[in-house]
Amino acid sequence: MQEPHLLPGSRGEPRPAGDPAPDGSSPAAGTDGRSARATLWPAAVAVSFVLAQLMLVAPGLGLGWDETVYVSQVGRQGPAAFLSAPRARGVSFLAAPVAALSTSVLALRIWLAVLSGLGLFLALRVWRPLLPAPVIALAGALFASLWITLYYGPQVMPNLWVAYGALAAVGFFLRTARDPGDSLSLVGLAAAVAFVALMRPPDAVPLVLLLAAASLLVRAWRRPVLWCVLAAGVLVGSAEWVIEAYVRYGGLVARLDRASEIQGDVGWYVAVDDHVRALGGRTLCRPCDVPWENPVTALWFLALPLAVAGGVRAAARTRHRTATVMATVTGCALALPYLFTIDYAAPRFLFPAYALLSLPVAVLLVRLAGIGTSWRPALLGLCALALLGHLAVQYKVLDSVTRRVRTDTVTLSRIAAELRAHGVRPPCVVTGKDAIRIAYRAGCASRQPAGHDAAITPAGLARAAERQPVAVLLSRGGTVPAYARGWAAYQLPDLPQQPGFHMLVSPSAQN
Prior knowledge:
Number of helices: 18
Largest sheet: 5 strands, mixed
Oligomer: single chain
């Protein structure tokens, strides 16, 4: 007996060959029309996502601290910043076509906004044979309308791309598991896993382990070719990261240990509350000891488990059950490391989970929209009001975050101008507080003698100061390094939590 369809009014009975479609058209014409509409819906979501980024986020948004690290690996504005152990170069490759040719941040934002829209469309399109088009489009809209998704869409950060890769990987896995002869889906699965590993190798591990476990547990999916494809994908994608581990760190285990140390020693932590607080507009909550001042910003996060459970329940007796359950299980599995092994939070960490869990939520909403009872108008009105309220909150948080970052962008540009005005011009070195962002804007190298990005010794900085301009950035009360005593001091515009911001400039800057 055939399982019912998810969408209301669709009974799922096959139509005899040659019978006209309900609208009187031929079967081929009906199929073509449905296929076009199925493509149009996620395409419309992706285009709207791009336009929203270009209007609300991209203008005036300078490079952040992490972004500067990634862009500097391929950019032409200044020397490459230190790339610490947890980081991979995948997102730098995405930025390279623009960053290697231009120093315009706006051009880079536009490039990445368009790419992120295309990535969203392609990742959603993978699911078309598995779920109805309205569900896929609604899932994409729910994910794309989060303030964090809009904020990071045009940014040089890897987490959103990991989400796209994970979403596509699960979809390709289900397609090839359902149809062993679908060689294109096998290639897609390998490519999606490799893409995740290229962006963030540690994130590819739980994804591959879960898909491999699913292949073992479900008898119909026990195919050695699936395991080989998963292994090949993760090996190819992480090859550069692993090679670099042996070249720079003395081995893979040494790099993993160093990455764990930088991330605060990975272990058992309960960071759920940290993630809840971070949704109020904190891009990084470390340490996350701030008060929970705006609980309304996390209502959707708290409602997410109930909505996901409702979506799984709604799909329980439909032919979309397997896809819905698999998206749910994988999404939850990818969230667990960030919720329970790292003692701080950043909203972007949960992108892969949000992307996958948006599917069961969309299943639930589509099912609710099709309930044929007298309560339907009231139910639809309630859902519409809830979604509008949710969008209003997301926009308010996004506006707050972008305003803050734009203000910082102006201040950082003024600081870079002050450096140049006092003789700190390329080739030059900047060290101290917020050196990475300021150095790259000024065209200088950023070098730190301590911390996780230590790349030089104090003696090395002293020697560098003899042949090129060196600037030490300090806030009020900061300890003056021994090699910089007697250097000229200049006041700088204050940055957030950096009162009394100033710099010490080596005598070589005046030569």
